[in-house]
Design goal:
This protein is mainly beta and about 140 residues long. It is built from two helices and eight strands. It has helices spanning about 115-120, 125-135, and strands spanning about 10-20, 30-40, 50-55, 60-65, 70-75, 90-95, 100-110, 110-115. The structure holds zinc ion (ZN). The site of zinc ion has 8 residues, from helix 1 and helix 2.
Length: about 140
């Protein structure tokens, strides 16, 4: 999973997904999502895929992101003042048929995606199919 690096000065909302270290293993929701909104500023890292978002949050005023990171799943451009927030973001982990790999299936505002190569090429895969069937 990767996103395009947003332009400096634009206002964006970045959605990230991380393993939920508190979830009981085997539960559906092994992942938690975070959404931060702010203005894109230059990253302190000398890496073309890194970007920073100035959120102004007291605890964490600037968040650094790597556009190539599997954790950064979505960037939305915010135009004007009030904006709609992505509210329905969920993730599931699905084992490959041989059990050797784990793919991350995500549903953001009703739209599914998967981290497997099949989805990358066909925009559909059996992992998404399995999750969609389960949560339907
Ligand atoms: Zn897949």
């Amino acid at each position: 999973m990767s996103v395009n690096v947003p332009k400096i000065g634009s206002r964006v909302r970045v959605t990230t997904v991380y393993p939920n270290s508190y979830a009981y293993r085997g539960e559906d929701n092994n992942y938690v999502t975070y959404t931060r909104e702010g203005v894109v500023v230059k990253s302190i890292f000398n890496d073309p895929f890194m970007f920073a978002v100035e959120t102004g949050a007291p605890d964490h005023p600037v968040s650094e992101y790597n556009a190539k990171s599997q954790h950064v799943v979505k960037i939305e451009y915010v135009i004007g003042g009030a904006s709609k927030v992505a509210t329905d973001t969920k993730a599931w982990k699905v084992k490959s048929t041989d059990g050797k790999k784990i793919y991350l299936v995500q549903r953001v505002n009703g739209k599914f995606s998967c981290t497997c190569t099949g989805f990358e090429f066909r925009k559909d895969c059996k992992h998404v199919g399995a999750v969609a069937k389960k949560v339907a």
